[in-house]
Structure prediction request, 120 residues.
Amino acid sequence: MNGPANLPNPFVGAWELVSGFYVGEGDAIIRYEDEEVKSLKVLSESRFSFVTSAKGEFYEAGGGEYMAEKGVYVELPRLASHSAMIGQRYEFQYQLAGDTWTNTRWQAGGQVELEVWKRV
Prediction:
């Protein structure tokens, strides 16, 4: 995950969601800004946790293990506020540029999610 042996893991730290979208029912594009989605994600060397609100109210939370290698970031939730998330594999293509982390998730050949995070 870290590349060469002595390089630090660039994901370790706290991240705040600043923009993005997901594809909802009927292929509707749901923009995080329109839903007032706020999320904070904290990563250690191998584990993640997050909490998310929408329109000022609790929306979801979860945590588990993650892996990142060769442009692919994967989360494996082990605890979650929505039981359907537990045991799932969430795989994203990612880019890191300074303190900006961008994740794109694809399903059946189509983009279903975009997240842009800033280090805090």
